[in-house]
Design brief:
Layout: E1 2-4, E2 9-14, E3 20-26, E4 32-37, E5 44-48, E6 51-55, E7 58-62, E8 66-71, E9 84-88, H1 96-107, E10 112-115
Parallel strand pairs: 1-9, 7-10
Antiparallel strand pairs: 2-3, 3-4, 4-5, 5-6, 7-8, 8-9
């Protein structure tokens, strides 16, 4: 499954929201994807089209133009039955360090993050 977005919106540590890390984007067709995690929780919350799900582990691969989200087979219902989502983005190079920091905060000790 694919989603195309202008940019990835991130906050590595929102002090107004109990230090929650958040990545969000909206597709050109109105889709909404969001990953969030509070630092004291062991699970990541994934929201797809406004339906939240909690996950124990996932794999995320970031490049300058794509973000690949891979779920365990048992969590595929979080993405409407699919086990992966490729997000094509045009996030500015100057913002990519914040995107990486946010994903590392979200996935720390609960998922796998890689940057290519």
């Amino acid at each position: 499954m694919q989603l195309t977005t202008e940019r990835l919106l991130v906050n590595p540590c929102d002090d107004e929201e109990d230090n929650m890390a958040m990545l969000c984007c909206h597709g050109r067709n109105g889709e909404m994807f969001m990953l969030t995690r509070y630092p004291d929780e062991d699970e990541v919350e994934l929201t797809w089209d406004y339906e939240p799900s909690t996950l124990d582990g996932l794999k995320v691969t970031l490049s300058d133009k794509t973000l690949l989200i891979e779920l365990a087979a048992g969590d595929a219902d979080a993405l409407g039955g699919k086990d992966q989502l490729e997000i094509i983005h045009t996030t500015a190079a100057a913002d990519m360090a914040d995107v990486q920091e946010t994903l590392q905060n979200i996935l720390k000790n609960t998922g796998t993050f890689s940057r290519i």
